[in-house]
Protein: TetR/AcrR family transcriptional regulator
Organism: Pseudaquabacterium terrae
Amino acid sequence: MTAPKTRDRILDASLDLFNREGLASVSTHRIAAELGMSPGNLHYHFRTKQLIVTWLFRRFEERFAPCIDASATVTALDDLWLSLHLTFEAIAEYRFIYRDIEVLLNEFPELETATQALTARNLLAARSLCAGLAEAGVIAATAEDVEMLALQIVFSTSCWFSFARMTPRQPAQAYSESALAAYYTLTLLSPYVVGESKDYLNYLRAKYLK
């Protein structure tokens, strides 16, 4: 089995540290120490922390973009739940980005345009998702409802892990954090769900909140 390249090792270690300790708290010296290498060796591959963060942001975009695109074609609640679950898994893998967004944009303002573009893409997909559910008869929603639901879904996916840090730790759950986040986001649609889809939503409610 081929050993990971040094650049990949640096990026993987940086991601783990940023997720665990926060973007502002981790320096390149801390990353080097985590890897057992000299700061000079790390700086040979990445001259600055900015370059590391930029590369990780690109990786996040590549990981997250397929989830966004897939969500735009959803027309059933079970597909929506799966789409949300995959979305939260992608965000959880790079959770420092949205959790530490204020720090990220203040320290690395060159990423602001990319962040805004990703959010705009996410909003467009969420609007298509909600409109598709309305057209399929899954939800009864006006154009204004669709717009607000799309905003709420994107807000939930972007801010969930920041919110989670502000709440007391819960006892061990039978379901992963991403699955629970997907469920709670799905229930934003509850007042609008009609027909057989309401039975499926009630099934999910019983499954996760029993």
